[in-house]
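Deliverable D5.2: sample structural annotation.
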Amino acid sequence: PHDYLPATGHPALLPAYDLMSRLLGFDSVYQRLIEQAGLADGQHVLEIGCGTGNVIIGAKRSCPGIDAVGSDPDTSILARARRKAAGLSGIRFDHAYAQRLPYADGEFDRVFSSMML
């Protein structure tokens, strides 16, 4: 049992998460979010409820000079995000709950959250 709702609703569906999001057209939504954020080198960027990292990895690829952090309470999905981000520097994934974030106020210049609430 989890004390949160897994991204796919059930842990057994995790391997299909990225495929489902692509088929539903979320890649273009993620890209629009990243474009709207106005990212710039040197910014500290957080994604709350990062799931498999689609948004925060996309942000890092679109602006390699940011310091990127993805947070999620699901350790299985964080492992998947870490594998997807292999080879990228300046990105990390933290185990954290949205209601108890372990970051200081004002630590981030931009904060993303998509499909979480």
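Annotation notes: The helical segments are 17-23, 26-36, 54-62, 75-84. The CA atoms of residues 96 and 103 lie 10 Å apart.
The annotation will be released with the project's public dataset once the embargo ends.
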